[in-house]
Amino acid sequence: MPFDAAKLAADADAFCRELRPHEELCYVEHRFNDQLVPLAKKHNLLGMNVKPEYGGRGADNRSYFLALARIGREGTGVRTFFSGHLSIGAYPIQTWGSEALKRKYLPAAAAGDKVLAFGLTEPDAGSNPREMTTTFEKKADRYVLNGVKYMISNGGIADAIVAFGYPANLKEGDPARRISAFVVDAKSPGFAAETFAPNAKMGMPTSNTAMFAMENVEVPAENLLGAEGDGFRVAMGSLVSGRLSVAAGCLGVIEDCLAEVLEYAKNRRQHGKEIAKHQLVQDHIAHIEMDRVASESLVLRAAEAKDRSEANRSDAALAKAADLLAAEAKLFCANAAWDAADRAVQVFGGRGWSTLYRPGRHLMDVRVCRIYEGTDEILKLKIASSLLGKDWEAFK
Q: How far apart are CA 109 and CA 90, in angstroms?
């Protein structure tokens, strides 16, 4: 059956409408939203970008990221779950995994029987993943992993995690010492996860963020993604998908901020008239709309570039263009969403400074989008060096 973009959009909207009352309550109570996965399963959203032969819906990038934009209206925490599960969870397995590995994880992920996550960041390795200290050692038909991963979305609820490490037997500086990528089962002996308390984060209290430790965790050899030494390529390729999902979610945040502001400004009266008639309130509304339309344009352009690249995987120029547009979209949309949420809070006035209203939640939650999946600073360097040329890279 061919992919139905309209049906995916309708299912995403139905999911969001059913989820919102649960998310509203969980946010105020600062607790994990345990209805997200069951409702996503009900509306068949847990395999949006997974190919039909592995139980997914086979969405093209344009349709997938538009669905994430709709989901993003419900909150960055909600959208972050899908990014972890699909954009940087299922995507690397589908792209670099063997056929056996795809069959092992993707149907279960698409059906909602397994939650996925992506474990790259460590306590001392953030913007530079090459500084990670996690190691692996090959032993017969398995790999043995040791290390700690930090601030991992879905890390405390995941059944399987894409994790990265260096060969344990090679010292730093050895040209053969290269990162490899693995799919690690969270129930493996020696694997221990600890979820961050909701009040330990500035925002996203309804989502799961965790750190996990691997102490002599055994991973079957078939769970290697790509070949040994391909891990950095897997990570960077996955981040193209991840950055675009963040950009799409930020578009959704802007859309929700605009909707909230329009309704509130038409009903709130001050100085003898609705505040929507005040010029400076209209200034905020106009800026939020410009944030929205510019973000939408960038997200769609980047998604279409990614579709072209995936249809012609041997074309390095298309891959480079898609990578750059994903970075540009993520940088712009994250900052535009921060601006839109800030302006929405200002329009709401005192009510904006309360988590009982949506703009204040968006303001706290969306701030992380300027950090994870590539900080503003790293993305600016990436964009500038792509224009200047490889010889001008700030970090080599």
A: 8
Give yes or no for a contact between 149 and 122, defined as CB atoms under 8 angstroms apart.
Answer: yes
Reported residue count of the chain is: 396
Tell me the pLDDT tens digit for each residue of 77-120.
Answer: 999 999 999 999 999 999 999 999 999 999 999 999 999 999 99
Q: What angle do CA 307, 313, 315 make, to 5 degrees?
A: 100
Strand partners, 273: 270
**Alpha-carbon distances, residue 288 vs 265, 320, 394 (angstroms):** 13, 31, 33
The reply to whether 373 belongs to the active site is yes
C-alpha span between 274 and 263 (Å, rounded): 11
CA distance 135 to 179: 9
Looking at the DSSP bridge assignments, the partners of residue 149 are 212
Distance CA(135)–CA(137), nearest Å, equals 7
Q: Is 218 helix (H, G, I), strand (E, B) or coil?
A: strand
Q: Is-contact 84 121, C-beta < 8 A?
A: no
Separation CA 344–CA 364 (nearest Å): 12
> Is 189 in a helix, a strand, or coil?
coil
The two three-digit tokens of residue 227, written as one number: 């070949």
Q: Which tokens belong to 179? A: 């990162």
Task: Give this prediction's pTM.
Answer: 0.96
* Residue of 255, 328, 373, 393 marked active site: 373
pLDDT in tens, 263-301: 999 999 999 999 999 999 999 999 999 999 999 999 999
CB 195 within 8 A of CB 209: yes
